[in-house]
Fold this protein.
Amino acid sequence: MKKILGALFAAALLSANLFAYNPPAGGQNILRLSSPNLMTGASSAAGGGIYNVTPSSIVNNPALTAWEQRITLDLAGTLFVNTNEDYDNTNSLGEAFQAGILFPSRWCVSTLLFQGVWTEFFDMPIGDTISFTGGLAKDITDQVSVGMTANFGLLYGDIVESDWTASAAFGAYYNHGDLAFMKNVRFGVSMNNLGKMYSNKKNLGIKTAKNIKDNSQEFEDSTSWPGLCTIRTGFAATMLSTDIMNLGISLDLSYPFFQDLVVDTGLMLQFWDFLKVSAAWSYDLQEERNDASNLMPSIGVSFKFLFNSKSGSYMANHGWDQSDMTVSGSWKQMYENIHAISAGAVLNLGLKDTKAPEITMWGEE
């Protein structure tokens, strides 16, 4: 019996060493730093407190875009301000950028997303990355959709060695409808990061922060990131609905490599049809345990307006006489010394088709 227990204990220690968990701070959310919609959307796999889907939503759940009817353009950027002056080899400013486009068709909805993040900070030592994500989504019934994405990324910079990632993700979405006092109850699930992750060993892991606060100057290199085989489950619903205002909430749980627990909650207020105010809060268990977290919520605001195209113009000739654009901005204190300010615009070409098709049998009399 002692030999068996000893063997089990040795196997447990070996597993812990083989699957050590020490990603760089911010590494799990590398694809969610480039736009205000991602920053304040609580990483929702269910579409957010008030259902809001853009091309960048595929990083949370590839199935979310299945019901989009219009070509959508998404352009955004983020400025990171680093106030940590204790280390000379990091920058005071960082940037992120994204451009996305969504194409609906009778068979499926296709999405392309390009993102870049440049953050050579000691408190968020991701380095410089660029990534390309392509997605396909399809509605199965009036309530259920599925989707998949493929992602390819490059890592480079002065504080890291070059590396690359290639992965796939799968997702499903279900709109239940009304349930008790809640309206538009939605569920989402996705499995992300199925493939080769960044495995560069010169990124500083989250355990470095705890070592420094414990008066140790030990800098621990990171393990692979983002977390391989990360499962995300999401719930969202409208809790209050009036003629003037809707209030929605979302709750997501994710499990990076089954070694961490991340809780994302979101609150969204929509006034009339054009003004939204949102807030999101994230709790990462492993970052909190290693003193590399920040519990401040992110806050954001967006404004939607309609505009008409001139008769005979390119947009009018393609049936886009009237379109809508949503401009948004957000702020978040990423970590103790890093602030993120983000702004973006989403352009939907044309208007949603809200009329049911008319069917005429045997001709008109």
About this structure: Confidence is low (pLDDT under 50) at residues 1-18.
